[in-house]
């Protein structure tokens, strides 16, 4: 029985090549899209879940209270006293480690020098993360001073081999570190990635501020592995007042948060996780299911449209003795065969598209053919798809009454079957139209944010990290750069102008209250030429100037800082900031330092020659940028020969801030387009089938004098009607969803009716094109052929 | 073998009620070859469908070898049908996607006959029907007469007690039609009971007995002496 049903299935597929092709390729594209999205979902879902008992790894987080006593901010960084304290004091802590963020340091091996990402950590990190060691002892590799663990590819880069135990790499051109371990490269989906890992003791020896036990500098990550039996909410209640118990007046509350959840649930409001990446993931899950359903609908439509042809088979089989269950299983089997064929095609499609997809999204997805979970997932998706796609045709076809079918050769077009098919097409196109509108709104929103005035000359600035000799020889660098004519202005500052990196509270100013000390200000330090170089717009006062000796103790503030401080005449006012009493000499208009999606936080720009780490240059517009860059690179290399020169365009850094939205834009564009394509494929199939069915009618009409355009109208109209209904349904839904989505942005555009109309017109246009192709073919055919056909 | 009493069947649509069978009484003896004749719409096909358990009457009794069939549920009817009856249709109703061999094999599969036994039975009937060299062909590759022979073979392969034929020669030219009628006669002579609906008095002349229907009634019955004597 199985064999025979299988044979019938294959022969049916072969006999109806066009519709099978439409079915299989539509389903294959749908499956491929769905599987790629699921791959992405599983990639994100497994973020930071590689450690053996990742559920017991917790990160210490800090809630910072604001002026009104509410939690104003939740931060992932702690002070350096926390980890040792926890380990010593609490029995539920099995092990604890401090970590730095991975930072680019200059590293030299036997073959060459590169700036590579290095991280510092307590040796306990090896017990927490359980890296896979190729060489070295996985418990003691970080225990000796001046040791280092390198990843496989770092070892290859510097030595050309992975067998590099006990060899040395030179750190920052100052300190030799002995390699005590080589580990496998970290998977791409981890939050903490590095090229080499150094013990905390190196961090302390290199940077004096790390050495001092400190409760207030929230600059380090603290990770714990806790007893699996421990109750985390009880722990959190007990450590809430840790700072107060230790006699500190700081209004901060530490708490534990599962490390592997941080990636997807990392947004905090009032100290409570409110989601994060998980929302995008849910969106993609929905998209995956939606696209697959669209493809399934095609399948159902084609199958029920063909029901007249299959009806006879059903009638005969029932007469001879087939049971309904047997027929249902036959049709399900048929759809499963098609789904399996589609799945094979889908895997080929995925393999073809993944490199492109990975490049667009800057991630590393791949199909792991040796993974059992992957196969189980694939089989599950194929089974579910086959059953969904086959269910309606199976139940519909098997319900035919044999007498009706076999007696009246023509199984009348049941009202039910037509309406259901129409409902399916309408649903399919509604989804597609919603996706198109969503896509355009997302695109518009990205454009809107992109077009927000940045507030400084983002396109004219380049920056070089102030490292090695560039720190001590800044004045030389500056004068040589200006001499060369490559730059028109140079500035050294504490950090890049494209990121929020430092903030402080505790400020005092004329008229400030005790509560105002909790207000956090973004801070950065610069030297002379801040306004001139960056192009920030000055509203009151002036830039720092060497003409005023007192400017070494002056500050500039942003307009919103002025508002927060409630200063009417800010110039000349004294502000106690960072422990210094400084005079406000200028007020500048807010610029986008942090996220372009949010309004700017108040910013204080101080003057400091010591607190510097970045050289920002305004390129001389008189020369081509490439010439300027070459000149800058030459000068920098001459002054700081030990380091590779790395000149960054600030507008590229700015573009990175839009990356996550760009990903959303790319994905919605791509899958929205696919949804339309698959829907049209289905429409094409239905139109061709309907044209085929009506061949005789068309022939008769033609003989009676119908023109080609009459006939095309006749054939196209019924389909366009459905697309029209879909559009009417989709517009309010899309409008609702997207208005809601836009509201989640502080700065947002609105749903534009012109766009909606264009989307509607575009959809009708595409559908018309699809249908009219078939209609034209049918209408142009020789009527005699059509009449002979019966 | 068959005893039908007061059979009534009404077709209802939203507007019209059509009485197809209006109190039919008839019987068929084992080994008989009965023709049912009558003008279009007289109810003869409905009667055949009821006899084949493809359709349910409103009331009446239908006994097959003393078993009342009308009280059965769908599953029982389906089982009874596949074990006891074979069908031959005007338009052959072969499955286009299956070969001649597979078409004939199908009812055996539904009757859960083991594969080797199936092969034997199908080959036997194919030989008997003289279509051996066609067994791997698909229905469209055969002439109408050949297709009907396949259909007859399919009806007989389960060795049914009763064969129901619905205008078996309606789609055939006269020489092919005669071939099929001779085949049915031959089967009847070998002991199979046959009930046939037909328009053609020529075809009916092959049977033992002719029942005439009109407006859902049996209006006359005629014994075909030349054939019945043989039976007796």
TrEMBL record, chain A:
Keywords assigned by UniProt, alphabetized: Cell membrane, Membrane, Transmembrane, Transmembrane helix
Pfam families in the record: FtsX, MacB_PCD
Its membrane topology: Multi-pass membrane protein
Superkingdom of the organism of origin: Bacteria
Domain MacB-like periplasmic core: 20-241
UniProt-recorded Gene Ontology molecular function terms: transmembrane transporter activity
Domain ABC3 transporter permease C-terminal stretches: 287-401, 669-783
UniProt xrefs under PANTHER family: ABC-TYPE MACROLIDE FAMILY EXPORT SYSTEM PERMEASE COMPONENT 2, MEMBRANE COMPONENT OF TRANSPORTER-RELATED
Protein name: FtsX-like permease family protein
Biological classification of the source: Bacteria, Pseudomonadati, Bacteroidota, Sphingobacteriia, Sphingobacteriales
Automatic annotation (TrEMBL), chain B:
Name of one Pfam family that matches: ABC_tran
InterPro entries: AAA+_ATPase, ABC_transporter-like_ATP-bd, ABC_transporter-like_CS, MacB-like_ATP-bd, P-loop_NTPase
GO MF annotations, alphabetized: ATP binding; ATP hydrolysis activity; transmembrane transporter activity
GO cellular component assignments: membrane protein complex
Database matches in SMART domains: AAA
Lineage: superkingdom: Bacteria
Keyword terms, alphabetized: ATP-binding, Nucleotide-binding, Translocase, Transport
Domain ABC transporter: 2-232
Keyword Protein biosynthesis among UniProt keywords: no
Family to which the UniProt record says this protein belongs: Belongs to the ABC transporter superfamily. Macrolide exporter (TC 3.A.1.122) family.
Name under which the protein is recorded: Putative ABC transport system ATP-binding protein
Lineage: Bacteria, Pseudomonadati, Bacteroidota, Sphingobacteriia, Sphingobacteriales
């Amino acid at each position: 029985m199985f064999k025979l049903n299988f044979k019938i299935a294959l022969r049916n597929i072969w006999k109806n090549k066009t519709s099978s092709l439409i079915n299989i390729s539509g389903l294959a594209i749908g499956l491929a899209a769905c599987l790629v999205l699921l791959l992405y979902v599983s990639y994100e879902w497994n973020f930071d879940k590689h450690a053996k008992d990742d559920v017991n790894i917790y990160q210490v987080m800090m809630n910072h209270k604001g002026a009104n006593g509410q939690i104003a901010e939740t931060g992932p960084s702690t002070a350096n006293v926390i980890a040792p304290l926890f380990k010593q004091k609490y029995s539920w802590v099995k092990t604890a480690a401090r970590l730095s963020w991975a930072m680019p340091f200059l590293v030299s091996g036997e073959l060459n020098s590169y700036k590579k990402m290095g991280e510092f950590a307590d040796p306990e990190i090896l017990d927490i993360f359980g890296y896979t060691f190729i060489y070295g002892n996985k418990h003691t590799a970080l225990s000796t001073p001046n040791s280092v663990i390198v990843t496989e590819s770092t070892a290859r880069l510097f030595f050309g081999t992975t067998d590099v135990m006990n060899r040395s790499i030179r750190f920052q051109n100052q300190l030799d570190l002995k390699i005590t371990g080589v580990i496998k490269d970290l998977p791409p989906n981890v939050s903490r990635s590095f090229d080499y890992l150094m013990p905390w003791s190196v961090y302390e020896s290199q940077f004096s501020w790390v050495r001092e036990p400190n409760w207030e500098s929230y600059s380090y990550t603290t990770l714990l592995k806790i007893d699996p039996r421990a109750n985390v909410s009880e722990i959190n209640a007990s450590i809430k007042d840790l700072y107060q118990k230790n006699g500190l007046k700081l209004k901060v509350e530490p708490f534990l948060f599962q490390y592997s959840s941080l990636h997807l649930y990392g947004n905090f409001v009032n100290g409570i996780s409110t989601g994060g990446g998980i929302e995008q993931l849910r969106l993609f899950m929905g998209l995956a299911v939606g696209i697959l359903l669209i493809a399934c609908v095609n399948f159902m439509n084609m199958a029920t449209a063909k029901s007249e042809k299959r009806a006879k088979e059903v009638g005969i089989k029932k007469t001879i003795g087939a049971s309904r269950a047997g027929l249902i299983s036959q049709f399900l089997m048929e759809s499963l065969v098609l789904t399996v064929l589609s799945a094979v095609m889908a895997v080929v499609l995925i393999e073809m598209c993944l490199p492109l997809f990975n490049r667009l999204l800057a991630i590393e997805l791949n199909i792991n053919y040796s993974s059992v979970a992957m196969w189980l997932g694939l089989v599950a998706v194929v089974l579910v798809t086959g059953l969904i796609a086959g269910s309606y045709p199976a139940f519909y076809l098997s319900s035919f009454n044999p007498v009706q079918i076999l007696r009246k050769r023509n199984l009348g077009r049941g009202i039910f079957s037509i309406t259901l098919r129409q409902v399916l097409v309408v649903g399919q196109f509604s989804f597609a139209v919603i996706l198109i509108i969503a896509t355009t709104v997302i695109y518009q929103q990205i454009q809107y944010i992109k077009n927000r005035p940045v507030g400084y000359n983002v396109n004219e600035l380049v920056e070089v990290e102030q490292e090695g000799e560039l720190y001590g020889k800044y004045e030389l660098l500056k004068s040589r750069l200006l001499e060369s004519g490559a730059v028109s202005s140079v500035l050294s500052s504490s950090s890049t102008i494209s990121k929020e990196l430092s903030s402080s509270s505790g400020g005092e100013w004329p008229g400030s209250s005790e509560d105002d000390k909790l207000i956090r200000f973004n801070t950065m330090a610069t030297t002379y030429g801040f306004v001139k170089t960056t192009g920030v717009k000055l509203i009151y006062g002036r830039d720092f100037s060497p003409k005023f000796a007192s400017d070494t103790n002056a500050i500039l503030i942003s307009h919103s800082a002025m508002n927060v401080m409630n200063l009417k005449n800010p110039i000349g006012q004294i502000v106690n900031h960072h422990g210094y009493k400084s005079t406000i000499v200028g007020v500048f208009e807010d610029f986008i330092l942090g996220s372009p999606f949010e309004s700017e936080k108040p910013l204080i720009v101080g003057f400091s020659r010591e607190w510097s780490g970045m050289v920002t240059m305004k390129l001389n517009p008189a020369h081509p940028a490439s010439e300027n860059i070459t000149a800058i690179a030459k000068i920098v290399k001459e002054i700081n020969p030990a380091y590779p020169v790395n000149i960054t365009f600030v507008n590229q850094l700015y573009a990175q801030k839009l990356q996550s939205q760009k990903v959303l834009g790319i994905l919605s564009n791509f899958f929205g387009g696919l949804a339309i394509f698959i829907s049209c494929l289905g429409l094409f199939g239905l139109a061709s089938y309907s044209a085929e069915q009506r061949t005789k009618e068309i022939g008769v009409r033609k003989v009676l004098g119908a023109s080609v355009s009459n006939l095309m109208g006749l054939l196209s109209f019924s389909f366009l009607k459905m697309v029209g209904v879909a559009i009417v349904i989709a517009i309010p839904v899309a409008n609702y969803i997207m208005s809601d989505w836009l509201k989640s942005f502080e700065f947002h555009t609105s749903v534009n009716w012109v766009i909606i109309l264009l989307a509607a017109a575009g959809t009708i246009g595409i559908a018309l094109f699809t249908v009219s192709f078939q209609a034209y073919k049918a209408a142009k055919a020789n009527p005699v052929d059509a009449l002979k056909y019966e | 073998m068959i005893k039908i009493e007061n059979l009534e069947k009404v077709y209802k649509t939203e507007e019209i009620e059509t009485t197809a069978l209006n109190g039919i009484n008839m019987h068929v003896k084992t080994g008989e070859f009965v023709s049912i004749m009558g003008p279009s719409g007289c109810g003869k096909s409905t009667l055949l469908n009821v006899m084949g358990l493809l359709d349910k009457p409103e009331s009446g009794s239908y006994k097959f070898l003393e078993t009342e069939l009308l009280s059965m549920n769908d599953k029982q009817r389906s089982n009874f049908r596949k074990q006891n009856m074979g069908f031959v249709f005007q338009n052959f109703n072969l499955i286009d996607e299956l070969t001649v061999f597979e078409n004939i094999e199908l009812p055996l599969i539904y009757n859960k006959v083991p594969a080797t036994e199936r092969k034997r039975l199908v080959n036997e009937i194919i030989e008997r029907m003289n279509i051996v060299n066609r067994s791997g062909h698909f229905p469209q590759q055969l002439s109408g007469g050949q297709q009907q022979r396949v259909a007859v073979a399919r009806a007989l392969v389960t060795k049914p007690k009763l064969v129901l034929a619905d205008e078996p020669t309606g789609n055939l030219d006269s020489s092919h039609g005669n071939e099929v009628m001779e085949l049915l006669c031959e089967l009847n002579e070998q002991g199979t009971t046959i009930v046939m609906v037909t328009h053609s008095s020529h075809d009916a002349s092959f049977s033992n007995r002719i029942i005439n229907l009109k407006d859902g009634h049996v209006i006359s019955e005629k014994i075909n002496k030349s054939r019945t004597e043989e039976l007796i």
